Amino acid sequence: MTLAALVAGLTGLLAAQESGQRQDQGGGQSIHGKQLSAYEATPLPVVEKMLELAQVRPNEVVYDLGSGDGRVLVMAAQKFGARAVGIELDPRLYEASRAKIWDLGLRDRIQIVQGDALEQDLSPADVLTIYMTPYAMWKLQPHLEKFLHKGMRIVTVFDEVPGWEPTATIKVQGDNQRTYTLHLYSVSHRSGWTSYSKFGRKQ
Ligand SMILES: C[S@@+](CC[C@H](N)C(=O)[O-])C[C@H]1O[C@@H](n2cnc3c(N)ncnc32)[C@H](O)[C@@H]1O
Predict the structure, then answer these.
(1) 54: domain range?
(2) Which residue minimizes the CA distance to atom 27 of ligand 1?
(3) CA of 190 to the centre of ligand 1 (A)
(4) Is the dihedral of CA 77, 80, 81, 82 positive or negative?
């Protein structure tokens, strides 16, 4: 790991912990110590590009790790015909996104789990989406490794997964004057623990 990546990881950790402490003060279930990233929504045009980049097909299963207000899940279900699962640590975001999914009548397509992404079984996922922090990627990498299977696609926003080579990287303009970098990892074959061997460059 480079010094820059280490510094970015530590900065992410401090920001996440500070944010976790702030949220603890609001009452409710404690998330301190488990929070990998503060909440920031991905603009909807960027969400659409993420799902296009992963080539989400009808009835595939999309997992969003740290699902926030549920926007990735809703677009995956409504626009791509997928089934979607969100993992969200923050109880308030969990409740709000769950209420939204009920209101939209998407209960049969979308499930939201309140919990730590690092403790979830990700094996049913055809597609994983992640918008967190460099520190989160560093923590998540060994967990993700357990569930990789042939045909699986992972899309990350801004931060690369340490030790993995992206199949593709694109830049997308948000509707907020910000440019988002998306990384796609396509798992080209099963087995092996050496990450580099799992990903093939897109033809
Ligand atoms: C940058 S936001 C992204 C939200 C959403 N995925 C989007 O793209 O709009 C990161 C989310 O991860 C959640 N989060 C942080 N640590 C987590 C953890 N250990 N397990 C599950 N979710 C977590 C935060 O509460 C926040 O909602």
Answers:
(1) 27-186
(2) 68
(3) 28
(4) negative
